[in-house]
């Protein structure tokens, strides 16, 4: 088995054991709302970012004075998870330390990803547990890519934030957080989308006010993402690509000039031994 399928009257969702990644989200008509993973644009669909969101300076993190190689967005998206539970409309997958992970991240951890269908909502819960005898630093993010345009969607699509977003946005330089701040194009809470917005890469909302965003044309189909536990957010696509990523994060790429320990990096959380933290994302479709 390489995938788990969940179904209810609204959805058919497929989750790959590789990365515990949602790879298909079909409505009752059979239309798929997720990017198809066409590598001509981007092979991802909805990767889980752990134990790091974004990139580290030199692609290494510093732990106890030593450098460890850690690729952009961490290793979870390239790791095979074990199945804890698999039912008709709910599944739980789990990842723990291995010889491979310890080379990059010298900690004993447990990452559980739970998926559950409830009406027209897919509930995703990521739980990080510290199973080590020392503090566990980490960041975590969701990275779902939805089709643009959405199935049945016509005309200009928008991203509608729960609140106004007056704080400046940030951008990346060589995958790292640039110190310069930019005027927020979603200051009103509504961002009309056009490919030129992404010529300079992702839009990074470091000081996000909203905990819910919706994507779609006015009055048309809509996908909404709610993420009560995630204080940061990214919007990303490639100019002209047929998808848009709505990315709730805890943490973000390292600042360009960052030279500290991983635990000191902005956006990184630390769990005490035996402690755990959960992060929720609800994806709701309106046909």
From TrEMBL:
InterPro entries (alphabetical): Aldose_1/G6P_1-epimerase, Gal_mutarotase_sf_dom, GH-type_carb-bd, LacX
GO molecular function, one term: isomerase activity
Any one biological process term the GO annotation gives: carbohydrate metabolic process
A Pfam family it matches: Aldose_epim
PANTHER family membership: APOSPORY-ASSOCIATED PROTEIN C-RELATED, GLUCOSE-6-PHOSPHATE 1-EPIMERASE
Record-given protein name: Aldose 1-epimerase family protein
């Amino acid at each position: 088995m390489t995938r788990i399928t969940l179904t209810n009257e609204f959805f058919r969702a497929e989750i790959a054991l590789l990365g515990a990644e949602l790879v298909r989200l079909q409505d009752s008509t059979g239309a798929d709302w997720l990017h198809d993973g066409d590598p001509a644009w981007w092979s991802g669909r909805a990767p889980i970012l752990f134990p790091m969101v974004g990139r580290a300076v030199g692609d290494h993190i510093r732990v106890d004075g030593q450098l460890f190689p850690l690729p952009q967005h961490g290793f979870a998206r390239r790791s095979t998870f074990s199945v804890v539970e698999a039912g008709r409309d709910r599944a739980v997958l789990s990842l723990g330390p291995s010889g491979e992970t310890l080379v990059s991240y010298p900690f004993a951890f447990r990452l559980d990803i739970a998926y559950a269908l409830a009406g027209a909502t897919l509930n995703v819960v990521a739980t990080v547990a510290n199973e080590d005898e020392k503090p566990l630093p980490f960041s975590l993010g969701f990275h779902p890519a939805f089709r643009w345009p959405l199935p049945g969607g016509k005309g200009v699509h928008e991203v509608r934030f729960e609140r106004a977003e007056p704080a400046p946005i940030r951008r990346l330089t060589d995958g790292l957080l640039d110190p310069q701040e930019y005027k927020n194009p979603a200051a009103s809470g509504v961002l009309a989308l056009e490919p030129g917005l992404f010529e300079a890469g992702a839009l990074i909302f470091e000081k996000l006010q909203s905990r819910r965003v919706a994507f779609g044309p006015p009055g048309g189909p809509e996908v909404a993402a709610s993420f009560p536990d995630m204080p940061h957010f990214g919007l990303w696509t490639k100019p002209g690509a047929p998808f848009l990523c709505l990315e709730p994060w805890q943490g973000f790429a390292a600042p360009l000039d960052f030279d500290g320990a991983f635990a000191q990096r902005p956006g990184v959380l630390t769990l005490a031994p035996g402690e755990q933290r959960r992060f929720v994302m609800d994806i709701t479709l309106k046909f």
